[in-house]
Amino acid sequence: MYFSFETIPAFAWVFIATFVIYLIKKPRISKNEPPMVPYKIPIIGHTLDYLFNTQNFLAECGRQYGDPFNIYVYGQVNTIAGNEIAHEVYRTDTFSKASATQDSFPLHRVLKSLERPETTEKIIKTIRQGISAKLPLYTERIQKQFMISINKKIGDCSNPKLIITANDNFSNMIARPVADVLVGQEISKNEDVVKAFADFTKDFTSILAIPPILSFIHPKVHTQVITLPLRFGWNPIGKHMITLKENLKPVLEKRLKDKEILGDKYEPPLDIIEYLLNDPEYGTKVITDDYLNKICEFLFIIVVVSILTTSRHITCALYDFAGRPELWDDIYEEQVRIDKECNGELSSQHINKMVKLDSFLRESLRTFDSSTPIIPHRCMESYTFKNGMTIPKGRIVKTNLMDIHYNTTAYGPEPRSFLPYYGLENKFPASRTDKNYFIFGAGKHACPGRFFAVNEIKIGMHKLILNYHIKTPSGKIEKKIHSGPLASPPVAGLIFENRKKH
Ligand code: HEM
């Protein structure tokens, strides 16, 4: 290779810049901090191990350095909290999930109302009062919506049919009941609205595909750069906003008019838009464009937190079921018994009776295999853990979910093996958070949508298992896809074949 004399200054500059970055970014760990895991390459630190060998790397660090420990990733020191420490993080107000999430998931850039903490509080209240507390009233509608999706997406499988799950992970199947609950029975019939709900998160997350290389300088630089197109007018989700606004407007106007004409005789439909119309802060007398924007933003925030998560987990649970023929008869028999009992019309009591399916789902959620959940926490003030270790203000703390979900004290000597009836035997339903089960977080910020999510997945699986034999193409358990610390469902596809009518 030939280097000209003129290239020497360029090399010198690169060297000087690297050296300056090295000096600025050199982690400074104070005396009482969790131990810093040693690393060999300056600046890069543990980034490669964290990205390409996450599970083994974190497990080995835990074995050698205890809980918690510090690693150096993308130019930042992160504290990794495992089974002993994570509970403290989730239960202490010094740690903010909202502040940490804005860097890694800048949804507030497109849904501006998220910049106000009151919006999140209102959303949580709405989910608790408007969805969780009313779940029994929604059951019939949710199952109808599932059957529409199942018939459209899977349909007649007299001959075995391979359904590839890679692109959407059944998000359409989940989007339909979510649309029914959020915007009501009339609007959710519109396929464009269902598609907008199903695609919204996927389209938004397309901007997150850029690897956080610039975080080596500072995480805010990365966030600023990836959101540049958004600030200059490119909005990947604008079309979904328009679809929802167009469909909401006439329905909201009609409801206001009916209310005025019918007075006390008005029968309020059960859905979140009606809940919002009756809310002192979100109610209105006229449907203006500003009002529609406000309501659509609110609804799409719920869409983001609910559809991708639930569809990812129903898909994983189906793969877990399809790859374990030894469980098929037992779980199928439970569904047949309940189906006969309710004559095909599930109520919430019948869903509560799906105890084997619930236990199976809990196990699928427990063994999901994400090493750190996408929900990091930022330490808002210097904090001393109960074990005496201190971390500084601003430090990001990530939960080592595997350390919690695969702890031998709770799950025995083989905690990675699939224990389908662990929840049933120990009376731990899939929606209950517990110190050994963090898939829905913990403490006062634990997922408020978990009852809805578990209900949806159980209804969906119940109907699918009743109607089809479900297998993997290989006949074996399919491997999940890992990208860094995150896991996603396998992509091999699932084979559906009609069952003979029972
Ligand atoms: C299987 C599906 C789901 C999973 C695995 C999941 C998981 C989580 C996790 C891990 C958190 C953070 C909890 C914490 O910080 O302690 C969370 C928060 C949240 N989830 Fe879910 N979620 C699911 C479905 C849903 C659904 C269906 C909804 C809405 C209907 C929802 C709404 C929310 C909201 C609003 C928060 C923020 C709570 C807060 O900050 O206080 N989630 N979820």
From TrEMBL:
Q: Which cofactor does it need?
A: heme
Going by the UniProt record, its keywords in alphabetical order are:
Heme, Iron, Membrane, Metal-binding, Monooxygenase, Oxidoreductase, Transmembrane, Transmembrane helix
Recorded GO molecular functions are: heme binding; iron ion binding; monooxygenase activity; oxidoreductase activity, acting on paired donors, with incorporation or reduction of molecular oxygen
What top-level branch of life does the organism fall under? Eukaryota
The family database entries (CDD domains) matched by this protein are listed as: CYP503A1-like
Task: List the PROSITE patterns hit by this protein, alphabetically.
Answer: CYTOCHROME_P450
For this protein, the parts annotated as crossing the membrane are 6-24
One cellular component GO annotation, for this chain's record?
A: membrane
| Gene3D superfamilies listed in its UniProt record | Cytochrome P450
| Family statement drawn from the similarity comment of this UniProt entry | Belongs to the cytochrome P450 family.
The name on file for this protein is Cytochrome P450
Give the species: Diversispora epigaea
Give the lineage: Eukaryota, Fungi, Fungi incertae sedis, Mucoromycota, Glomeromycotina
